[in-house]
Amino acid sequence: MLQSEIWDDEAAKSYDTPGTGMFAPEVLGPTVDRLVELAGGGRAVEFAVGTGRVAVPLAQRGVPVSGIELSQPMIDQLRTKADEATIPVVAGDMATARVPGEHQLVYLVFNTVSNLLTQDEQVACFRNAARHLAPGGRFVVELWVPELRKLPPGQSAVVCQSSTGYIGLDTYDVLHQQVVSHHFRFDASGGREARLFRSPHRYVWPAELDLMAQLAGMTLESRHADWSGAEFTAQSPSHVSVYRTAEAR
Ligand SMILES: C[S@@+](CC[C@H](N)C(=O)[O-])C[C@H]1O[C@@H](n2cnc3c(N)ncnc32)[C@H](O)[C@@H]1O
After folding, report:
1. Of 61, 75, 131, 227, whose CA is between 20 and 30 Å from 148?
2. Cut 0.85: pTM above it
3. 100 with 56, same domain?
4. DSSP H stretches of helix in the chain
């Protein structure tokens, strides 16, 4: 299934959950605070900007931010919140599309580097991030840590999250380094029916990301377990990694 088929009109219209989930202030607040700091007064680009969950509050904090986004329905939703002058968006693939100009910060959050399904595309994405950056500029990646340790021998599915009315299952293909996330949302009337949203990903370990950064001429500056700077440990379910291009001599 193509990303453009996944991020269709229906997905775009139901993406925003103001005040809750990934739009909760306790999620977005630290994310935006850290990105403001990392932008250091310069310009930023969000790869896979989506409906502007992060870009809109970042622009409101005074950071000039542009986006790259594959899905026109997601861009249309963003346009209900910010016009082209406030958040310019290039429609295209984050592995290849180019926002004009030089930037201090490129960021790719909410596990979206894994939406690129091959190693070649992910390496191209790192190279594209580096192309957008001024010397000393930063590329920030937020990504989950693959949960292979939770897989008993012979089993390929892991429950990644469950709460009232929702269950999330990841099915792993460890031979090809692929995972499909299945999000089941049950209706309120006794849960007899569920809506299913499925997305394919290529999972990546932090060490492989570091190597991709190296191929693109960047080095790891910091890795934390979250946006507030918690220590990244063997138990951390995800990480925020900051890569940096070399300073000008
Ligand atoms: C989980 S959403 C994240 C959106 C936004 N970054 C956020 O944090 O809310 C994933 C987004 O990635 C976009 N996307 C997937 N593959 C892409 C690609 N190759 N280039 C650009 N955008 C892509 C999808 O269209 C979708 O808008």
Report:
1. 227
2. yes
3. yes
4. 3-6, 9-13, 25-39, 55-60, 72-79, 119-132, 206-215
* Segments forming the whole domain that contains residue 189: 148-201
Asked whether residue 170 falls in the same domain as residue 132, the answer is no
Indicate whether residue 140 lines ligand 1 (CB < 6 A).
Answer: no
pLDDT by residue (tens digit) across 128-186? 999 999 999 999 999 999 999 989 888 999 998 898 888 999 999 999 999 999 999 88
Q: Which residue's CA is the closest to the ligand 1 atom numbered 9?
A: 53
Could you tell me if 37 and 154 lie in one domain? no
168 and 126 in one domain? no
87 lines ligand 1 (CB under 6 A): no
User: pLDDT tens digits, residue range 221-230?
Assistant: 999 999 999 9
133-144 sheet: strands from edge to edge = 89-91, 65-69, 44-47, 103-108, 133-144, 238-245, 218-224
State which of 1, 4, 56, 70 you would mutate to test the pocket of ligand 1, scoring each by most atoms of that ligand within 8 A of its C-beta: 70
177 lines ligand 1 (CB under 6 A): no
Q: Ligand 1 pocket, 114 CB below 6 A?
A: no
